[in-house]
Task: inverse folding
């Protein structure tokens, strides 16, 4: 029997009480209050804004700032994100970040990943927090940077008092300010907490089960536009798992990632700095590599000699891939030389070569796009023929 078997792992009573007790309380209290008093518009508005506060405290704070160190922030931003993350009641920064780093290091491992999606939706979504599984234990050896962070350690030491202060104090202050104390306490306090929990949990569960894998198929993480809307930009999870040190999850300009926009906006006024970005070349390399994989899989479905067009396409794809790989290798060598270059003349020569390789790369990329379009047309035509037969 596995060490993580439900029949052996003891119940995590604090986690079970919070995660199961709050929805039960909401199912009783919200309908009762609505029947007797009704909720004000201000209370409903508070739900959205307090949800944004607690959710961004997790995504911009716990996740991208402290777990992955994708950017640096001023003291005031760090303090606000610490308070906002505490408001979300997802344990301390230290505990959360340590567990998340273990998840990235051992993603999908059914023994070592604390919330492995390969153990099913329920387990990865919430089950892993309801019992004290061995995979959820941590000794904080993987967070030495956070152990030296005074703000993180302050929150860790006084976590329970801070949770009570934020979850009672923030909704209470808003409730008094708008003249609907209990309405805000129930919507901006209780319901907001439940939604905030499950929005985060979707990243561990659905984002590993539903969506596309445009950058890597080495793990279960998926990109999903719809989940990005509900998870404040965290839904582009396939990208995140291959490039975890990028402050962006939605790397395309059109992708919905309010957490990225917040971090960038704060940098524009000097409150965040050193925003880490994965070079576009590395991103395109991952993207094109996956396109090759998918193309080969599609062609393999129809065999090697079903159609002359398909055979020719396979040959072209193979040639393009060799060109692509050669360009990558040349560029890697060039970057290594660039780091070692000391004389201006040598640096200038490398710069010229770099420009030339960029042009070659873009030419290969364009050719691949054209090949991909032609291949899709051939495959669509072939599928139609098969359907007729």
Result:
């Amino acid at each position: 029997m596995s060490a993580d078997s439900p029949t052996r792992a003891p119940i995590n009573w604090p986690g079970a009480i919070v995660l199961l007790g709050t929805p039960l309380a909401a199912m009783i209290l919200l309908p009762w209050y609505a029947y007797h008093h009704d909720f004000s518009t201000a209370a409903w508005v508070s739900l959205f804004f307090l949800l944004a506060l607690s959710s961004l405290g997790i995504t911009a704070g716990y996740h991208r700032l402290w777990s992955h160190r994708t950017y640096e922030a001023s003291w005031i931003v760090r303090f606000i994100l610490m308070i906002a993350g505490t408001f979300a009641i997802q344990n301390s920064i230290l505990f959360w970040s340590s567990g998340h780093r273990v998840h990235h290091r051992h993603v999908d491992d059914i023994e070592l990943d604390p919330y492995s999606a390969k153990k099913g939706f329920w387990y990865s979504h919430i089950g892993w927090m309801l019992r004290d599984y061995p995979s959820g234990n941590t000794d904080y050896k993987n967070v030495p940077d956070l152990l030296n962070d005074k703000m993180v350690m302050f929150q860790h030491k006084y976590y329970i008092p801070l949770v009570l202060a934020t979850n009672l104090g923030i909704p209470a202050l808003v409730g008094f300010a708008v003249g609907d104390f209990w309405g805000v306490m129930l919507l901006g306090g209780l319901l907001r907490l439940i939604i905030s929990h499950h929005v985060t949990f979707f990243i561990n569960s659905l984002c590993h089960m539903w969506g596309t894998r445009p950058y890597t198929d080495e793990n279960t993480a998926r990109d999903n536009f719809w989940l990005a809307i509900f998870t404040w930009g965290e839904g582009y999870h396939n990208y995140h798992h291959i490039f975890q040190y990028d402050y962006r999850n939605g790397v395309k300009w059109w992708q919905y990632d309010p957490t990225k926009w917040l971090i960038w906006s704060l940098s524009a006024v000097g409150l965040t700095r050193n925003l880490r970005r994965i070079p576009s070349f590395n991103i395109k390399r991952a993207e094109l590599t996956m396109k090759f994989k998918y193309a080969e899989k599609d062609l393999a479905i129809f065999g090697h000699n079903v159609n002359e067009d398909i055979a020719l396409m396979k040959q072209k794809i193979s040639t393009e891939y060799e060109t692509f790989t050669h360009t990558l290798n040349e560029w890697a060598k060039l970057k290594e030389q660039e780091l070692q270059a000391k004389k201006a003349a040598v640096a200038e020569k490398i710069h010229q070569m770099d420009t030339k390789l960029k042009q070659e790369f873009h030419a290969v990329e364009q050719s691949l796009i054209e090949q991909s379009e032609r291949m899709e047309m051939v495959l669509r035509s072939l599928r139609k023929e098969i359907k007729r037969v």
